[in-house]
Amino acid sequence: MPSPFRSSLRAFSVLVLFGMLDLTGLAAAAETRFAERNDSIAEKVQWLEAARARGDYRQARALAESIRHTLEFEEQEHGRLPDPLSGASLFIETQRLPVDWREWIRGWRYAKLLRSEEREGLSRNAEPVEWILGFPADSLGSPAREIRVVRLDGARPGEVRSQVSEVRRRGGEWQARVTILADAEARERGEWMVLFGNPDAELPGYDSDLKVTGEGVGLDIENEFFKASLSRQMGQLERLAYKREHGLELFAGGDGHGEPPGIDWAHDYVTAGDFQKMRITNWPECPDYSVVRGPLSVVVRRWGFPASPLHPVFTPSRVHIEVEYRFYAGTPWFMKLGSMEVVRDLTVGYLRDDEWVFSGMSFNETLWMGRDGKLHVGEVPAPQAEDLWGVGFFNRTTKDAFIGLFLDHEATGTPRLPHSGSPTLHYRWHGQLWSRAFFHQTTLKAGAKIRQRNAYLTLPFDERNGAPEVESLRKRLLSPLTWTAPSNLDFRFGKAPVGRLARPGEAGDAPISKSALWKALEACRDVQLYSALPSVVELGLVRDIRVRGETVRVLMTLPHRGRPRAGFFSTGSGGNDAPIRDVLLKVPGVKHVVVDTTWDPPWSSNELTPAGRSKLGLESNDALRR
Predict the structure, then answer these.
(1) Under 8 Å between Cβ of 85 and 175
(2) Crossing angle of helices 57-78/41-53, nearest 10°?
(3) What is the sign of the dihedral through the CA atoms of 613, 617, 618 and 620?
(4) Integer Cα distance of 86 and 135 in angstroms
């Protein structure tokens, strides 16, 4: 049976052929460029203002949402990562490596060389490390599939688990964030290699103790030390359960101020005249966010303007707030990064960027740390109250503890920033609490910004010998390993490991040619883009191909949540007469095809191939922004 799409197309062609359909007007209005297929933000703002002026609030709100989506796309195209540790042009061909290493990494053509140095005299165990790296786009098909990290020296040279995220494609190069967990002895120099350029590579599928469940920002994140539960409503840290002995669970009881209570209450500010408090915990839903989920780290970023207790009656856009949680595999602490930026001049009753509340009586003693990095037990002396760099609680009997380490706390364009937050064991209505409030009854100018970077430690604390461990952690976090990218091969290569780096099918040894499979997939097109007809390969929808005997397993994503039915591409529907399953079964040797789908990470325009960008009219990133 011919598809309805093909039948309609034949009928359309007949009408044109016999002159029964005049296309001259359509030709004059044809959209051939990206700018003709989209409307600019300036145009949408103009239409929004016109709709609002005539009282058409539904259209105005629809335009506001459309502007948001346009900005989302612009960020995909123009958002940048920090400057790379190693740029796209800095790499070598692997054929220059020692023979035993060339054999061990067979399948990978290129390598970046990196060097680590431990300068503080502190041993490191699974220290989270993040590199920003650049790669030439013509030598790397998929950063997520192809990148491998290898330790060249040390007691155990070989593959190191890695996580690739926040991939950007900018013209002729890729940019990506690569995360590893690095070990180092005190004063040790380490030699590392980042491999790429293997079209047969598969997603490595590393395992760890880091597990994530849930959707959006309402996640449960756990490792071997704790389970953190984020609010299903707005993503704030709501509960923290320890995985030791009696399984202490930290929570804030009651009904808050009408919002769901959590243990992390910041960020917020009191408006002029002490009229109301604007809170991110008042968000009815998270206004905007991004989530990175992987085997080594989970990063939850949220941003927006805090909400009024009477939202949306009061919706001032005066202090923009960003909060980021970072959780790592095998790590008994997590990070919070935050910022508060003043958008227009305003007077505040005060601002607050760190507050933690614990109901019940889990703890019976307080801790604090000064600028010198020394940890103390007991109340904070008055002269120290505005120069705190760590606070917390512990229980003398159970050893349970929760300690905040303030690693960075700085401000620009503001009066002097105090570093307060003395812990309180018995605070009415709350229980145990610390709160860092500042700039009381202060006028702040547009552009003023407050930043923080904190670590929160969940390990048990023994009063007799616990301080050195906490102090050492703070030193390690403030002075991480130093990394450089040498431009030569002056490296210490240990003996290559036994065996090989490649999994079965990654070194050109798949029983069915992967290049033939990728070529076949070019016939599967998105027929909903009627005239462009890009393939699933050109759109970057295929994330992975695995060959196991006569079975081919494909992992794909979908363009967006409005098209969640993968069967359109995998088995055929809606005019798609060349679905993935059918085109792959035509490849010699293929007997079975399995198609799996994932939303993680969400698809973005960075996954388009150059051919795909050309078909969509997106040849140049710079040509898109108007």
Answers:
(1) no
(2) 170
(3) positive
(4) 9
A 10 A CB-CB count for 111 gives: 24
pLDDT value of residue 11:
46
CB of 129 closer than 8 Å to CB of 494: no
Single-letter amino acid, residue 538: E
Class of residue 186 by CB neighbours under 10 A (exposed 0-12, middle 13-18, buried 19+): exposed
- Kindly give, in sequence order, each residue whose CB lies less than 8 Å from that of residue 614, ignoring residues fewer than 6 positions away: none
In this structure, are residues 442 and 271 in contact, taking their beta carbons and an 8 Å threshold? Answer: no
Calpha distance 213→299 (Å, rounded) = 13
Radius of gyration of the chain (CA): 28
What span, in angstroms and rounded, lies between the C-alpha atoms of 75 and 91? 28
Mean pLDDT of successive 10-residue segments in the chain (626 residues)?
A: 44 42 51 88 98 98 98 95 96 95 97 97 97 97 98 89 97 96 96 97 98 98 99 98 94 92 97 98 98 98 99 98 99 99 98 96 96 97 97 97 98 97 87 95 98 98 96 98 88 90 96 97 95 96 97 97 93 87 97 97 96 88 52
- Please name the helix (run of DSSP H) or strand (run of DSSP E) that holds residue 469, with its range, or none: helix 467-478
What spatial distance separates the first Cα and last Cα of the chain, rounded to whole Å? 46
Domains of the chain: 1-28 (no CATH), 31-78 (no CATH), 92-208 (no CATH), 226-458 (2.70.98), 514-616 (3.30.300.130)
Q: Helix (H, G, I), strand (E, B), or coil: what is residue 215?
A: strand
Q: Could you tell me whether strands 319-328 and 333-342 are parallel, antiparallel, or unpaired per DSSP bridges?
A: antiparallel
Concatenated DSSP letters of 343-401: SS-EEEEEEEEEEEEE-SSS--EEEEE-TT--EEESPPPGGGTTB-SEEEEE-TTT--E
DSSP state letters, 421-463: ---EEEETTTEEEEEEEE-TTEEE-TT-EEEEEEEEE-S---T
Give the whole-angstrom CA distance, residue 360 versus residue 395.
Answer: 12
Pairwise CA distance, residues 105 & 496, whole Å: 9
Dihedral of the CA atoms 484, 487, 491, 497 (nearest 10)?
Answer: 90
Are 433 and 352 in contact by the 8 Å Cβ rule? The answer is no
DSSP strand E in 258-332: where?
Answer: 268-271, 277-279, 289-293, 297-304, 319-328
Token digits of residue 230: 């984020």
Q: Which of 333, 339, 287, 276 is nearest to 309 (CA)?
A: 276
Three-class SS state of 11: helix
Report pLDDT for 23: 44
Which of helix, strand or coil describes residue 93? strand
State residue 572 phi and psi, 5-degree precision. Answer: 100, 130
Which DSSP symbol is given to 307? B
